[in-house]
Each structure stands twice: as structure tokens, then as C-alpha cells.
Amino acid sequence: MKKEQELKDIVRNRYTKIAEQGKAENASSCCGATTPSNKVYNIMMDDYSETDGYVEDADLGLGCGLPTQFAQINEGDTVIDLGSGAGNDCFVARHETGVSGKVIGIDFTPIMIEKARINAEKLGYNNVEFRQGDIDDMPVNDDVADVIVSNCVLNLVPNKQKVIGEIFRVLKPGGHFSISDIVLMGDLPEALKQDAEMYAGCVAGAIQKAEYLQEIEDAGFQNIIIQKEKPIVIPDDILIKYLSQEEVTDFNKKATGIFSITVYAKKPGATLVKPKMKLSEIQDASCCNPSTNCC
Fold first, then answer.
1. Which of 43, 208, 247, 295 could be stapled to 243 by a disulfide with Cβ–Cβ 3.0 to 4.6 Å?
2. Could you tell me the CA-to-CA distances from 155 to 61, 158, 202, 206 in Å, in that order?
3. What stretch of H or E contains 250?
4. Which one-letter DSSP state was computed for residue 159?
5. How far apart (Å, rounded) are the C-alpha atoms in residues 87 and 62?
6. Cα–Cα distance measured from residue 58 to residue 245, given in angstroms and rounded to the nearest whole number
7. pLDDT band at 286 (very low <50, low <70, confident <90, very high)
8. What pLDDT, on the 0 to 100 scale, is given for residue 61?
9. 270-285 average pLDDT score
10. Is 166 helix (H, G, I), strand (E, B) or coil?
11. Measured distance CA(180)–CA(227) in Å, rounded
12. Mind listing the pLDDT tens digit for each residue in 70-101?
């Protein structure tokens, strides 16, 4: 297993290249990192184009969800986006905070920070800033954020426990996060786990769904809820790069699952504000379905 710094360098180098690719190429691969699929659909990303605050120049097609849609951002909030890329989620968040709020994007890739700052300047957003740094050692003081969002980034961090601890540190008491990420159910083939390109492409760096949720609970968060979940299907023309045809067939038959989930959790303190969502959209990670009346 590669060391943490080596894995970080893999991701940083790959995302430097991704920043120079077009959105279409990024969207047709695993978070922009692998060879694009010839299938005419996006493997992971959701469509932002109808979202208020969306900025096309800032959308690199790298996400696996729409965390800002579920983040319950209020006017005047301070919001932090982890792995902010060219700034798209920050600009969507800024639409919700308004001019009285503040949005901070954190990314450890210099070219992404440069792109995001250029986009912010074009838009004239004086209350959106971008800071270069690791999200497992954020350049932010304690108890700063009302809301934290992130889109398909935590799976790239080798030490997920550390970054979840950092999220807890920088949130205000009573603050919350809404994070879209990639998780697993079942074991991936070893070839996918070990390949550096697939690591940078979100899949090999993902951990088991149950482990992911447990890490959040162990960090001290409450009211942990899966706000959205969808399966991710890796097309055969990408799988064949890592597996034999027989292994691809076997992989597709097994119950191994790769999922995009959007998770909400709250830091204890202040008044508990539950997500404003329909029951049909909610799965409580710490409880059974409310329709069974066992909660």
C-alpha cells in the first residue's frame, strides 16, 4: 500500500491535468481521472445546469452529486467547500448565502485555485475566496463554518478519519455538513484497488459505506442521514483496462456495489435543525425506515 503522501501526490498530479481537460472528457470518465468511456452518459456526475448560481466555466464535470441542493444553506451563512476545484459549488453556495454570507473554497491543486479565483473575479464575488491547502489540515480556524459541502473529494483522502475530524473542528457548534462521495458495498477486484489512476479517479480510494458512516459517528457527529444514494456503473470499456474479459463478466454478476451517497450530519450544539426533506428522500443511517414505526 502506498504511503499517504504518495497517494496525495498521485491525486494532485492527476487533478492538475484534469484542470486542463474539457468538461465532456472529465464527465465521461471516473471523476475525470481515467480514460474516457465511449458510452454516451456520465458515470458519476449530476447535472448542475438548472441550479441557481451555476457557472458553466467553473463546472469541470468532476462531481458525483449535488450536495448544495441538500445543504440547507441560509442567507448570511459561512460555507466551506472541500476540494473546491474551479469553484462551481462555491458559486452555487454563494447564491444561497447572498452578499451577507461568506464562502471559502479549499483545494490543494494550485491550478484549480487559480481557475477558481479567475472565475470569482469575473463574477465580481467579493465574499467568495479560495485557499490552497489540504482538507485534512484545513487553513481555517476553529468553529468558523455554518455549513460544509464537498463533492466527490473525501474518497481521495487517504486518512478519512483525519479529514472528518477537521470538518468537526471548523464547524460551529450546531453547524452541519452535506457531502457527496463515493462508497462501496462489497470488495473491489484487487486490480482496481491498486491502480494509481483508478485511485485518482475516486473508485479505488473509496471505503465501505458502513465504515464511512461509522467514521462520521465516531468523530462526534449527530443526526447522520443519507440524503441521496445512487449506484455507479463502471462501463466495460473502462473495466477492461484493469480486468480480463472473464473478470469483467464475473465483476458485473457479483453484488459488489459502487455508490454515490450524499450524507448530512450535524455537530452537537445550538438548536437541532433537521433537514427539510421529504421522507421518501431520506434514509437515516442510524435508524430504520420511519414507515416501520420503529424509530
1. 247
2. 17, 8, 6, 5
3. helix 245-253
4. -
5. 11
6. 38
7. very low
8. 63
9. 43
10. helix
11. 9
12. 999 999 999 999 999 889 999 999 999 999 99
Alpha-carbon span 259 to 225, nearest angstrom = 15
> Phi-psi region for residue 282, left (φ > 0), alpha (ψ -120 to 50) or beta?
beta
- Could you give phi then psi for residue 60, rounded to 5 degrees? -95, 5
**What's the one-letter identity of residue 166?**
E
> What's the predicted TM-score (pTM) here?
0.77
Q: What are the sequence ranges of the domains in the chain?
A: 4-283
287: which 3 cell numbers? 435508524
Which run of H or of E encompasses 260?
Answer: strand 257-266
- Positive or negative CA dihedral for 114, 205, 31, 135? negative
Class of CATH domain 4-283: alpha beta
Treating both helix axes as pointing N-terminal to C-terminal, what angle do 4-18 and 110-123 enclose, rounded to 10 degrees?
A: 40
Neighbouring-strand partners of residue 277: none
For residue 293, how many other CB atoms are within 10 A of its CB?
A: 7
In 55-191, beta strands by DSSP E: 78-82, 102-107, 128-132, 145-151, 171-185
Q: What is the rounded CA–CA span in Å between residue 163 and residue 170?
A: 11
DSSP strand pairing (283-284 vs 102-107)? unpaired
